[in-house]
């Protein structure tokens, strides 16, 4: 019996090795390794980098560098786990490509008998978590845009409008942008937004390095209560797990993705260096007055600074259509069959508008940027970027694929504990920060 089982496992492994999913992918316009690297950098090196000085404010200068490197290493490893598990699942099931949710479904469906019934739940869980993160991110961006407009316009016009007024005004514009349904119509918005972010980044660095550094009165290490906020912000800023498999699935040479000097390692190494530079010098420059986005610290009285702040807000506003596209595609696939086809257009308009109004309501309730960033980072990013790849790798390897003395299982338990720490403690302290706003 045992020999039959061993022979069956050997033959399965042999068949897995013989099937090469990379050769069977039919991609009309495949991306080069350089193009994929650019997408990976773009997926993480966005507006999150503007939040890194705030992360260093909570973590301190020394721990900020060490903590950012630690988060980057763990995130890189989790990307390797996710993509590696997806590629192995493709070989085992003889499928050319699997998306994020489809990988989770496949792994659970072929896992231990006791958990196979949860395959549908695993797929739905990934989809709905992507929805939650995307919509909460829209809320974060809505608060950022409104806060920026308040600081600049109130200063220029000598008025004292609340940020909630600007949230209402910004929502009117967002409601129109998020009605765009075709990806090709969003391309010009994305190009303009990316160009704007680059300009904002360069000018922000100019202001950061323009001021004299004051390291003597800056924190070097965090208070224990600030650790969850630091890790939540850092994970939120660095991770871009939602784009990893879609980008890898479109590669001309996907074998380059996980190599030692491949796309993932090079991209995240570059991102980590940039994040540490902005985080360290941003906090060193502005100290305890560092805000949730460093652009909010730029001097309102200078035209260049005001222009940069407005440009950052406009860039994010233009990107909201793209951020909205992915979750709406997921949601629409799940509910469109329940709606008569003749009412699809009206339903799309109503759903898109309804979600924007709901996000506006949440932003009006908590119109501050810092607690939102920590909250989204703790719940969404920790769950999808850290915990999910670890769980999928553990389930796929069950029961005998953990190596000598089951070191891979022990490693996954340690990383999973870290992910649960970010999820539980980070969410708790973020909620406490939100509650403190009203006390």
Automatic annotation (TrEMBL):
Residue intervals passing through the bilayer: 34-56, 62-83, 125-149, 161-178, 185-209, 229-248, 260-283, 303-326, 346-366, 372-392, 413-438
- Amino acid transporter transmembrane domain residues are 35-431
Q: What does the record say about its membrane topology?
A: Multi-pass membrane protein
Q: Where in the cell is it found?
A: Membrane
UniProt keyword terms in alphabetical order:
Membrane, Transmembrane, Transmembrane helix
What is this protein's name? Amino acid transporter transmembrane domain-containing protein
Query: What lineage, starting at the top, does this entry show?
Result: Eukaryota, Metazoa, Ecdysozoa, Arthropoda, Hexapoda
